[in-house]
Amino acid sequence: MKTLFEISKSGLLASQRQLQVTANNIANVDTEGYSRQRLNTQTAGMNQKGAFLGLGVSVTTVERLRNEMNDTLTNKTRQDLGSMTYKHQIYERLQSSMTTDSDGDLDIKISELFDSFSELASDPQDSSVRSNLISNAQALADKLANISQSIEDAGVLIEDTAVGTVTQINSLLSDIHSLNQTFTGSQGVDHGSADMRVQKLQELAELVDFQQETDPNGAIQVRIGGLIVLDENGPETLKTQINAAEDVLNVRLNNGKILDINGGELGGQMDLFEKELPEMMNKLDELAATFVDEFNAIHASGFGIDDTTSRSFFDPSGTTASTISINQVLIDNPNHIAASSVAGEAGNSDIAAQIADLRSQQLIGGRNLVNSSISIISTPGTQMSSLLDQIETKDAELLMLETQQERQSGVNIDEELALMIQYQNSYQAASRIFTTAQDMYDTLLNTVR
Fold first, then answer.
1. Per residue in 215-231, pLDDT tens?
2. What SS3 string covers 332-349?
3. Per the CB 3.0–4.6 Å rule, which of 187, 247, 338, 341 could disulfide with 350?
4. How far apart (Å, rounded) are the C-alpha atoms in residues 331 and 24?
5. Looking at residue 273, what DSSP letter applies?
6. Are 326 and 315 in contact (CB under 8 A)?
């Protein structure tokens, strides 16, 4: 008789717990990041005289339904997306300063300068042609300087953003460490903290690439570039070290070790700062230096209208995009522009023609100056197009992984209501057993009286 009461009691308690877990799932149906839970049970009993005697049901654990491998893959995708998305934002900013819908692009300015030298070759004594040539040369120098400044501004923006990103990473590592503490005590598993920790790891994945391991207690250990940044002793503090002159952006630990970062927003920031922006700037400076060298080499061998002095067209001291400038003597007096190859021959235009012919010469990497400039200013657009394709692919991959996780961890109201009815019936059945056992006990007492 006692066994019936124990079986009924265990069934009532198990059904009650199942209803509680199901009700909690329904209550959190709209809670972001919530993972549904299930109560795990097993048969209770004992061996007696060689036979197994059932004693009802016992509750083992409340299981959190979540695929951890899926979380790992999702975070890897988020790391890639974080880097790609940040790079796209920077290239979009650069494109707006390099290309316009007007006639002010770099390749147009170069063509206009060559057109001016062609006009000078046709009429070397026309003062208006000479003045227009100086204006077009100055416009080209200004455009080169503007593009150079845009690239430099992007670098400064990345510096500031990287510092903020590292601050966010430090904050998230601290939050994850605090959540880890709920897994190291003796109070049991805190599924709410586990869900919050998943969200923190997702936020971290958007900022930096990392690897994670779970210790036997359920706490998370985080590594970045193979170096531990979070363990049972707490988080490391990450610090930025920036040397703009050398195009170096490092992230160090307190012990001085440099982290190898390749993903997330921070990975994109470092890649742009150390590689991609300097490469663009180098190409722009090479273009400016080629103008200075090629134009001056020809121009210095010719003569203006008024005297027999040889002069450079560009200031020889300015050989970068930010420093290129027209020889001030020519600005002050355009008649000093060398069009003639012979002193005193005002109608001679050999030098102007030679400079005009530079338009078609392949001076940089098998390209002429106009095509070289087009290659430079089209870089942001080309990169944006490539990144958009990659982002679309990664977005689709992330959506697939999130959908798969949602099937396992998401709350389905219809399924939970069906389970609730099942657990209600189980509770009623266990209650019926208890009532039946009570009736049997009462009958037995009445019989022996």
1. 888 889 999 999 999 99
2. HCHHHCCCECCCCCCCCC
3. 341
4. 80
5. I
6. yes
Q: Which two tokens stand for residue 377?
A: 């200013």
Question: Which residues are within 8 A (CB) of 436 and not within 5 positions of it... i.e. 6 or more apart?
Answer: 4
Buried b / exposed e across 398-425, counting CB within 10 Å, b at 16+? Answer: beebeeebeeebbbeeeebeebbeebee
pTM of the model: 0.89
- Joined together, the tokens standing for residue 275 give 């590689």
Residue 13 buriedness (CB in 10 A; 0-12 / 13-18 / 19+): middle
d(CA 338, CA 314): 12
Task: Look up residue 161 and give its amino acid.
Answer: T
Q: Are 72 and 368 in contact (CB under 8 A)?
A: no
Take residue 148 and report the two structure tokens written for it: 């150079």
End-to-end CA distance of the chain: 18
Please calculate the CA angle 209-215-216 and round it to the nearest 5 degrees.
155
The per-residue pLDDT for range 378-410, each reduced to its tens digit, is 999 999 999 999 999 999 999 999 999 999 999
State the Cα–Cα distance between residues 200 and 202, nearest whole angstrom. Answer: 5
Whether residue 419 contacts residue 22, with contact meaning beta carbons closer than 8 Å, is answered with yes
Q: Provide the 8-state DSSP code for 184.
A: S
Are 209 and 79 in contact by the 8 Å Cβ rule? The answer is: yes
- The predicted structure's pLDDT at residue 1: 59
DSSP-assigned beta bridge partners for residue 275: none
